[in-house]
Structures are given as structure tokens and as C-alpha cells.
Amino acid sequence: xxxxDRDLVGKGNSPSSALPFGTVLLPFFRWPSVPPRSGQSDxxxxxxxxxxxxxxxxxxxxxxxxxxxxxxxxxxxxxxVLDIPVSYATLDAHDGAGAVVTTSSATHLALDDLETxxxxxxxxxxxxxxxxxxxxxxxxxxxxxxxxxWRVDRxxxxxxxxMLVLRQHGKPAVPGSYVELDGPETEEFSRLFSRTTQKTADxxxxxxxxxxRVAAALLSRPGLTEDDIDALIAAHDN
Length: 238
Fold this sequence. Notes:
By secondary structure, this protein is mostly helical.
């Protein structure tokens, strides 16, 4: 198990299984007319089919982008709620990374710090949790996402919590090192991971309006600074 050794970066993760096609109100779109039985090409029918396919494609793109925005907003909002610095959040990183939220690095944590590692783990899990809150997924779809788009987030959380377990047992552990948990430590890690996952779900639920505001801002702006995110979180007080 390799402990996280870089800044927490939440990347755009939106498995296709999360797209709720069943919610699309197709009656609002005029279904293409039935082509002539002669089998001859009908330009008008082909144009209708083309417009319909384009509409479906645009719908999928919009749904995916909105889902990614809520994923990244989950990282950003919960980081600030836990007082973890966020340098930048965007859906269109210039380095080709796509959607990212960059926070301060966990590598600076003191060896005797037994609280902050769990906070960073919560921030890592907040993206997937916010995505699931926005577009509920079946357990199978969630498991698939953990092997795909959510892999980095889950790996960061796992590494941080494993590091915390070792520190609680007086064993030095720093991001970037390889560790091995023994039997009791593994059981303790499982309990800690479950507890942290529940804490993350509770925080996402409590801060859902702020997450929605940040997601909307990510969809309409090139990027958000920490001050932007803080202002959006505090907007409910106005």
C-alpha cells in the first residue's frame, strides 16, 4: 500500500452508468416520422434522425458535465468546511487533466497529528459521495466506479487512513512510504474507513446547498479560487 505523496487532486469522474436516461422527457421532442415503405431515402426523415441524434449527444454531454461539476464541488466545499486550503477548482484544467480541485498537500502533516489525516480522507471521499448524492447509483455501479473514475479518490483516502492507524499505534508513517497492516490494524482500518465514509456522507448532506452553488459556478466560470468557494459557501447567510 503506497501512501498518498502528492496534493489531493480530484479529477472529473463520471461513469456512464450514472446518467439517468429514464428521467429524460422524450415527449417534448418530436419523434421522427416513419420513412416511406418503398425503402427509398427520405431526406426529410434523415434530417430528423440527425437532429434527434445530435440532441441525444448534447444531452449526454450536459448531464456528464453537470455530474462532474458536483463531484468536484464536493471536494472543494468539504475541504473548506474542514478548513483545508484550496488553491483552485476548475472543470477545464489547461494541462489536460480535465476537472480538478487542488488542495494543500498532506505531506506537510506532523508525525504526531492524529486528526488531520482523516480530514484529508474525508475530502478525498467527498467527490464520489457528492456525485452519488447528485446522481444516485446502484451498489454495482458504485463498485465499478471505485475501479475506474473514483480510483484515485479512494486510493488517497485509503492511504491516509492507513497512515492514521499506524500513527495511532506509535508507528511512523508518512505519505509516500509503503506500509503493511497486521491483523488487528486491518480490522481497525476497516472500522475507521466505515466511520469516515459515514462522516463524509453526513457532511455532504449538511452542505448540499453549498455544493450545488459551487457546482453551478464551476459550470459557468473558467475556475474558482478559495475566496470564490468561501463566498459561495457563505451565500446562504445573505
